[in-house]
């Protein structure tokens, strides 16, 4: 879904509707380069802010209602931009990465590893991610491919952490 046929959102678009503000990740989607990466970084910042008041498990589960907010917000913003999955819509990255950030909360290194894995799978889009991305439309389509990328990242993260732990020094 090419965003070159639509207008580039600006600060006026960002604040024109609450859905735009959410879908553009509070402004992270306005980044001129790599808005998905910027949106994922914003999610890490959001995690750290939420961690001041909530435990990691609560933050991870907070992603469930935020996913449904994203279906609505990305649907509205995509329609108003003229492209369903415009590159500036980064709420999908933010919500999908939030549970990974919580899972990796024990260490900044683990969070960096989870970040790299998520970006890898979000960009690479192995099967069936690309399949869903091309067939599921609207706000749900925007949100679901990043959810699947997060699932891949979670699996690789968990296997890697378990393998490193098992290969580590024995007591």
Report a brief summary of the structure:
The chain is mainly alpha-helical and 171 residues long.
Can you offer a commentary on this structure?
The protein has 171 residues and is an all-alpha fold. It has one domain (3-167). It is 71% helix and 0% strand. It contains eight helices and no strands. Helix 6 crosses helix 8. The longest helix has 30 residues, at 138-167. It is globular.
Instruction: Give the ordered list of helices and strands.
Output: HHHHHHHH
**Unreliable parts:** 1-5
Number of helices: 8
Report the mean per-residue pLDDT as an integer. 93
Beta strand count: 0
Total tally of structural domains: 1
Topology:
Elements: H1 11-16, H2 18-23, H3 35-50, H4 56-81, H5 91-103, H6 108-124, H7 129-135, H8 138-167
Helix pairs in contact: 3-5, 4-5, 4-8, 5-6, 5-8, 6-8, 7-8
